[in-house]
């Protein structure tokens, strides 16, 4: 990812305008892309496909299908398998959301900028600079 120099004295003319334009494009996409993100669903299975779960992009369970065969499991095993299917569905929805964001914002953000931890680290360094006496 392109590194931002935290020291404003080192910023070149035009960089702030360029960043402002980039931010405006990101905000426009977020407003338009919100519906696409909300429409994402994740699917997960467990117990050899006998338990199927669908979750939304928010991680909430939307649908559960359990076959009669799966109902033969003891309650503890059924609970474990159901939970495994839920986690797989949530992971699937998260993966699809990240793919959508990377695809949509890849043209707007610098390479690697969709890495949340890297972004947080970069902005923390910038904020630390301004907190200095």
Annotated CATH architecture: 2-Layer Sandwich
CATH class: Alpha Beta
Query: What is the tally of helical segments?
Result: 3
β-sheet strand percentage: 5-15%
Q: Overall 3D geometry? A: elongated
Overall SS class: alpha+beta
Task: Determine the fraction of residues in helical runs and give it as a percent range.
Answer: 40-55%
Provide a compact summary of the structure.
The chain has 133 residues and is of the alpha+beta class. The protein contains 3 helices and 3 strands.
Q: Your description of this structure?
A:
With 133 residues, the protein is an alpha+beta fold. It has one domain (11-131): 2-Layer Sandwich (Ybab, Chain: A). 54% of the residues lie in helices and 14% in strands. It is built from three helices and three strands; from the N terminus they run H-E-E-E-H-H. It has a three-stranded antiparallel beta sheet with strand order 1-2-3. Strand 1 (41-46) and strand 2 (51-56) form a beta hairpin. Helix 1 runs antiparallel to helix 2 (75-105). It is elongated. The two termini are 29 Å apart. The mean pLDDT is 79. This is YbaB/EbfC family nucleoid-associated protein. InterPro entries: YbaB-like_sf, YbaB/EbfC. It comes from Sphaerisporangium rhizosphaerae.
What are the salient characteristics of this protein?
Ybab, Chain: A; 133 residues; alpha+beta; 3 helices
SSE order and pairing:
Elements: H1 15-39, E1 41-46, E2 51-56, E3 61-66, H2 75-105, H3 116-131
Antiparallel strand pairs: 1-2, 2-3
